[in-house]
Amino acid sequence: MKFIDQFRTGLRNLARQKLRTSLTIFAIVIGAVSVTVMLSLVTSTKSFLVSSSEKIGMDTQVIVTGTSGLNYRESQWIGPDGSGKKIDADVLAAVEKLNNVQSATLYLAGSMFDSYKVDDQELTMKNVGVEGYTPNGTIKHILIAGSELSDSSNGSGVLISSDLASDLGFKGNETALIGKDVSFHYRKDMGPPDAPKADEVGKIIGVTSSDRGSVLSVDLDWAVEFQTWPNPQNNQNNQNNQNGQNNQNNQNEQTQDQSQIDRMGYGSIWVSVDQKKNVDGVLSEIKQLGFGAAAGKEEIDSQSTAFTIIGAILGGIGAIALLVAAIGVVNTMVMATLERTREIGIMRAIGATKKTIRRLFRVEAGVLGFTGGLFGVILSYGFAIGLNQILNKQLADSGITDRDIVSISPQIALIVMLITTVIGMLAGSLPARRAANMDPVEALRYE
Amino acid sequence: MSFVQCSGLKKTYSVGGEEVKALDDVSLNIEHGDFIAICGPSGSGKSTLANVIGGLDQPDQGSVMVDGIDLANAKDSILSEYRNKKIGFVFQSFNLQAHETTLENVIAPLTVAGVGKKQERRERGMKALERVGLSDRAKHKPTQLSGGQRQRVAIARALVNDPQLIIADEPTGNLDSSRGADVITELKRLNAEGITLIIITHDASVAAQATRIIEIKDGKIVERDGTK
After folding, report:
1. B95/A342 CB distance under 8 A
2. What is the pLDDT of residue A392?
3. C-beta of residue A119 within 8 angstroms of C-beta of residue A180
4. What is the CATH number for B202?
5. Most buried of A115, A147, B41, B175 (most Cβ within 10 A)?
6. Does any domain span residue B111?
7. Rg (alpha carbons) of chain B, rounded to whole number
8. Cβ B95–A355 below 8 Å, yes or no?
9. Does the predicted interface ipTM exceed a cut of 0.85?
10. For A148-174, how does the pLDDT look when each residue is reduced to its tens digit (9 = 90+)?
11. What are the strands of the beta sheet with B212-217, ordered from one edge?
12. How confident is the model at residue A230 (pLDDT cuts 50, 70, 90)?
């Protein structure tokens, strides 16, 4: 029997039991939708994260730390704590000389402020980091408003992350923050208690997406000043020679501070490698210099792995739905073989081989699977559109320009349809074999 | 060599734990163009004999050769091809597919065998329907036809592959006497065209028209009428 005739016969037989066929297909649709949507959700989110990471150059980023064995995440916020090897301008120079290093900057992170103020709003700086780096393109952000730090921002430009912008009530209106003054109030427990420093004042020049957490970014030189505390002895002098000595005091303070940074070093050095494939080489060269080095791509990879695992789990849940649907197919096909026993007898009498009968039922089950898969995929595309509408709003709210991040790839759609078809055919195999092995004489006698 | 050669056929069924001898050492030869009536009471084994000759069933013992094909030992594909190409079955209850049209029923053996294109099959089907005088009923469903017409559709289906042998198991059993007579006339006409005909029947008047009557009782041939 030709395949086209088997297919036609299968369709026809399915059409004879519309309700049963629809219900069986519906079960497959549910399975197909769960597999498609879950897999697509995971792969889409994964590729969104990867592309976002690549936008800020994370895939070619390496962080050099004084302590070895830290991963990228741990390296990010490390401050100068005196442990490990000292990170300073000499190390920076050595790193910059390495092959394939595009740019590098010293990096300083700290939490020396307890509040910050924009307009009349004063907000706590608990869990908010302040980072400083040289704005030479090594560290990049996804900007929601304004621009990156640059040499022209006169040293007191501030980038503010979008979650802080929304704390300030500028959610969706981040542009309005640009140009506003921001002042930082020092923590009381920082530095000598008898010599509190005055608030630092800067200007907001950009709002960044919060993918690296709540953070305020400033020029490295200014960040160095934040961590600069007058020497108690200088303070003593300061108090003794009250007025007219301020300039000199500042000079003293600077000198003293520089020596402090000299002693403790910077937190880390951020490096931008020219190409992703050269990252491993740069990593090992830095390690040979005796420093810790962590690559952003490791973080991307570990996130990707996490998403793959989540995908496997969610896909597994979808697979269970498909398994249940497969049982439905078995049920339907067993019913069909029983109902059509006499027809099977007739077909055998007019010359159908066992193989033909087997194929006929298998094709029919395959048609159930394929139809379920097809409608499942179509429905999934609908879900994706709906989901994207919700997500687009969320993305817009958090100032991210990406849209329609949930996408069902044609590969996933095809694979799901293939899987449902194969599952249908496999599920139909047992009933098909039963049908084929019926004794034609008995089958013809069946009432 | 005879067209059909059966020798020492044995077939036992187990019904409710009891063994029933459907065929008990049956030997029989049938020649090309014969019109054979197989008679006997219910359960005598006449249908089993017809099924064995028709390749629907295989004997436990003995040999059955039809047109040089050893049916007793043939595998499924050979038997199926044999049923498809050489045999036409006509059943008491017509055994038409109710959801298919008359024409679709008639061409089913061609479809099953994957013969030619759809158009070619339809043409051959229409010819078979013409032979039984039902070409104007091609698009009807079996339920829209009378019993006699349905049986003629079944005959057209049996004819569509130009078989050498038609086996009709109680073809008039579900018909009134005049419609039954029409069907027998139809079958006799085909026999006259050279197709070997085996009719299984209870009806003495049908049997009387055969060239040879084979009486079966308890799985044995008890009586053979000579050629009329």
Report:
1. yes
2. 87
3. yes
4. 3.40.50.300
5. B175
6. yes
7. 17
8. no
9. yes
10. 998 776 678 999 998 898 888 888 788
11. B87-90, B165-169, B196-200, B35-39, B212-217, B220-224
12. low
